[in-house]
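=== RUN LOG ===
request id: a7f3
mode: sequence -> structure
chains: 1
length: 422
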Amino acid sequence: LSPVCLGSLRRAASINAEYMGWFGLILHHYAEPVTYTLTHFISKNMDAIHSDTQKMFKKSTSALIKQIGGQKFRKGRGFTSVTSVFHKGITTLMKNLRETEPYFVRCVNPNRVKSASEWDEPHVEKQLRCGGLIQALKVLKLGYPTRVPYDTLYDRYHSVIDNKLIKNLDPPGFAEAILVAWEVTRKDFELGLTKIFFKPAKASILDTIMDQAGKPLTEEQNQRITNWVMGKRQKQVYGTLKILSKVIVAIRKRKARNNWNKWGRMASIVGVTVVHNLKVARARIENRNRGNAALTIQNFHRGLRQTLDTRERLARVKNSVRIIYEAHRKQEMKLDFFKWLTERVEETRAERKRLEEERRKAEIAKIKEEAARKAAEDKLEAEKQAAEAALATKRREEARLQEEARLAAEAEATRQREAQKA
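=== RESULT ===
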C-alpha cells in the first residue's frame, strides 16, 4: 500500500472507531465497490515469524522457502509485519515499473472449481470488468489510443527539410505539416497540448512516418506541405479580414450611436407627441368598446334570464306530465294485476276441486286394494298353517316308526344274548 492509502486506512479507522458492530471502509472502485473489514486489523498484522520457524525454513533444501522464511532475525529491531512486507514489495514493484516499459499478460480464471473443461461466463465477465479491460476496449474504439509527442517528429524531420515555410513553424505546426505530407486527413488525428493522437485505423501510418525519419521528403510531399501552408495562410488572411470587417461595423455602430445622441432630443419630442396622441385615441376606442361591451352584456343577461325562466317552466310541465303518466301507468298495472289475480284464484279453486276429487277416488281405490291384500294374506296364512300341521303329523309318524325300529332292534339283541347264554 502507498503512504496515501495507508493514511486513508488510518483516517477511516479513526472515523469508524466510534461505531459498534461492523468496522471497515468501502472504496468506490470504477468497476464495483470494494469492502474492507478492519476488525482486529492490528492484531492480525502482528504475525511475526517465530525464531524456531525461521530456523526450520533456513534448513530447507528449497531456495524459495529459504528466501521467504529463512531470513535472520535482528535483535534490537521490531518484527516485520505483513503490512510492511506488502508495502515494501509494492514500492519495489512500482520502482521497477517506472524504470522499464512493462508488457502485461492478463490471466483469467475460467471457473471456481479449478476445472479445465468448464467455462463460467459470468465469473469471467466480472474479472474482465473489474480489471478494466472492457473500459479499455471502449477507449480504443471511441478514442485515440496511438500518440506521439510533437518534439519527436520535430527532432527527426527538422534537420532534413529545406523548405523555409516549414522550418519556421513551431513544433505543433511542424508535426501537422509532416502528417499532411503523408496524406493523413484531419479527421484521423487530434492535436493535444504536447502530443498528436491517432485513431486505431491510422496507427500503421505512424509507424511508416517514424521509419522514414531522417530521409528527405519527395517533391510531391513538399508540394503538399506548401499547399497546406499557403491554405493556412489564406485562412489566416481571411480571418484577419473578417475581424477587420467586424471592427468597421463596430465603428459604424459607434458613429450611429453618437448621431442618435445628437438628434435624440428632437426625436424624443416627436415621439412623446405621437405617443400622447396614440394614448388619447386608445382611450376613446376603449370607452367606445366598453359601452358596446356593456350593451352586449345587458342583452346577453336578459336573454339568459328569459332562457332560464323558459327552461324552468318546461321542467315543471315535463315533471307534471311525467307524474300523470306514472299514475296512469300504475293504475293500468293495478287493474291488470287484479284481473290476473282473479283468474289465478279461479284456476286455483278448479285445480283444488280436481285434486280433491282425485284424492277421494285414490282413497276408495286404496281401501279396496287394502281389503284384497288382507284377504290374500289370510288365505296365505291358512295355507301356511295347514302345511305346518301336515309337516308336524309327518314328523310324528317318522318318530314313531324310528321308535318301533329301535325297540325291535333292542328285542333282537336281547334274544341273541339269551341264546348265547343258553
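=== NOTES ===
The first strand starts at residue 24 and ends at 28.
Residues 108 and 124 are 7 Å apart (CA to CA).
=== END ===
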